[in-house]
Amino acid sequence: MPTGSPPIPAGPATAGPAGDLAPAAARRAARGPRRGSNERFPRAERLAPYLLVLPAVLVIAVFRLYPLALGVNFSFTGDGDRNGQPVGWDNYTALFADPLFTASMRNVGLLVLLLPVAVAIPGLLATFVYLRVPGHRVYRSVYFFPAVLSPVIIGAIFNLLLSFDGPVNALLGAVGIGPVDWLGDPGIAMFAVVGVHIWATFGMALVVFLAGFATLDASLIDAARVDGASLPKVVRHVIVPGLSRTIQFVVVTTMIGMLTSMFGLLYVMTGGGPEGSTYLPEYYIWFQQGQMGRPALASAASTVLFGVMLVVGMAQIAVLRRAGRED
């Protein structure tokens, strides 16, 4: 090139590779992200949780909520000559005028009062197993055995044990205590049936408590022991706050079980007697539906039972949450 020639200006056409890349990157940044296959993945991720829960929601809606709505609607129709005809609140008025139903509702109140005992027994046994106190191997070996037995078998066994001339009264007589009519005294029969139910079902709650202990920070218990805390203080200030969620779950499920899973024991052990003292809403529902042929009245009783379970469950959760915050 001659020495006096003017320099050639560098433009886009003559820029090197680095000069081409920088403007291209700037143009892509100005346009924003490309609408391609990568944009669809965030949307799919947002929809994935809804798709996963959809089958469960459909099952609950079809097999739970829809029958519940049908039952509530059926409770406002009549029985017998007025079968299928709207009767308003007549069934509910008849319910609360029936001494058997009012007795069953009083027994629901008794179950609520006995609920802490039903929860404390498996909770304490799970604590013994977790802390390896003397005898914990025995609890671990036999705690689940009653849960695998049929309520009919359990009822038949305890009918023999609790009969007036049975082994339990024989043991009481040996220590100088008179025989007790466990299943024939209206003031005692319900307590006897509830005690049998707690014995028969505490294994499931104990398993839940043991699962909760697996999430508990063991270092907190060790620190409390090092500080000289006694077992009751460890339970009160470390274990109970650490298992608050587990306790809430066990309280609600145990209450539901006591209200809806005692039919077998009641049918075999007392048949609702003596004098209707062991009636529960579920037994009353079966009696009206199966024995008296009054399905609409039974539907009204089912609706009341559902309302009671909902209110009691929500109240228990609220109380336990408040207690957990205070701790």
Automatic annotation (TrEMBL):
PROSITE patterns: ABC_TM1 (PS50928)
Annotated ranges, domain ABC transmembrane type-1: 105-316
Xref: Pfam families: BPD_transp_1
Keyword Cell membrane attributed: yes
Pro residues bias spans: 1-10
Keywords: Cell membrane, Membrane, Sugar transport, Transmembrane, Transmembrane helix, Transport
Any one GO CC term of the record: plasma membrane
Cited InterPro entries: ABC_transporter_permease, MetI-like, MetI-like_sf
CDD domains per record: TM_PBP2
Stored PANTHER family: ABC TRANSPORTER PERMEASE PROTEIN (PTHR30193), INNER MEMBRANE ABC TRANSPORTER PERMEASE PROTEIN YCJO (PTHR30193:SF37)
Protein's recorded name: Multiple sugar transport system permease protein
Species this chain originates from: Glycomyces sambucus
Lineage start: Bacteria, Bacillati, Actinomycetota, Actinomycetes, Glycomycetales
